[in-house]
Amino acid sequence: MNILIFGTGGVGGYFGGKLAQAGFNVTLIARGKHLEAIKKNGLEVESINGDFKVKPKLATDSLAEVPTPDLVILGVKSWQIQKVAKQLKPVISTETMVLPLQNGANNVEELLEILPNQNVLAGLCHLISFVERPGKIKHVSFEPRITFGEIDNSNSERIQSLKTIFDKAKITNLNPENIQLEIWKKFLFIATISGLGGLTRVSIDKIREGEYLYDLLLKTAREIKLVANAKGIPLAEEHLEKAFEIIQNQSQGTTASTQRDIMAGRPSELENFNGFIVKEAQKLGIATPVNKMIYECLLPMEKEARNT
């Protein structure tokens, strides 16, 4: 099994490291000093579940060096998906599985605009980790989990095979009855906190402590649920309540990765989060004033980040 990890950041680095540790032929796509460090010393993972270090079969920044992969795990940001898909198209086979783990609700749709349907799976992950320094990934929160499935939710042979791979690598995994619902459940949480976090520039605990800001969080989430339901996704009140349980349980100082990108002046997933909701709502004839306010207020910063 040739496994390609495209993007060796917090997500790709952790899961790629676990797969390499289990003995699979893993290729890591990385760049710059991070790539140099991995080539020289291997990939180091510091985790709340135990530290480890691996030497992948190959670490490179060039797809020309990569053997035809059986599985591609996308560890890039959601706004990079289509660019990466175009790069992958010439090197994958008809049998290659491409598994997106990004935050966002329409990653599968974006992949399907570039890649054949037969190559694309649906997925997401739960994990808080990041590149602490070149060559080192730090996992700080959540039991790492990959949730994955066929787009039509069928329990295919390749899905069963993929489960066996993740089991062997001791990666907690789930093949749900409705992968689209699972994607939107996570999207509901992450899109609710990310935009408002980027706008206020404070941690989740500071937002939830303020009555006005907490109300904005609730309104953001309810608008997301409206759009999901209009698209046929069975997001229910219980899912909204669960998202806010998670928000309430976030420790002091916690921020979302998209919020951190916005605050640092880096390109972010704003378009894939609040921007996506605003544009889908317009198509569906639904009012989403809070998401629109957040999106329009952050858009000038996003444009500036992408021009630098």
From TrEMBL:
Classification via SUPFAM superfamilies: 6-phosphogluconate dehydrogenase C-terminal domain-like, NAD(P)-binding Rossmann-fold domains
Molecular function via GO: 2-dehydropantoate 2-reductase activity
Any Pfam family hit: ApbA
Top-level enzyme category: oxidoreductase
Protein family (similarity comment): Belongs to the ketopantoate reductase family.
Biological processes per GO annotation: pantothenate biosynthetic process
Pathway(s) this gene product operates in, as recorded in its UniProt entry: Cofactor biosynthesis; (R)-pantothenate biosynthesis; (R)-pantoate from 3-methyl-2-oxobutanoate: step 2/2
GO CC terms: cytoplasm
Protein name (Swiss-Prot/TrEMBL): 2-dehydropantoate 2-reductase
Function description: Catalyzes the NADPH-dependent reduction of ketopantoate into pantoic acid.
EC numbers on record: 1.1.1.169
Catalytic activity: (R)-pantoate + NADP(+) = 2-dehydropantoate + NADPH + H(+)
Keywords carried by this UniProt record: NADP, Oxidoreductase, Pantothenate biosynthesis
Domain Ketopantoate reductase N-terminal: 3-152
Ranges where the Ketopantoate reductase C-terminal domain occurs: 178-299
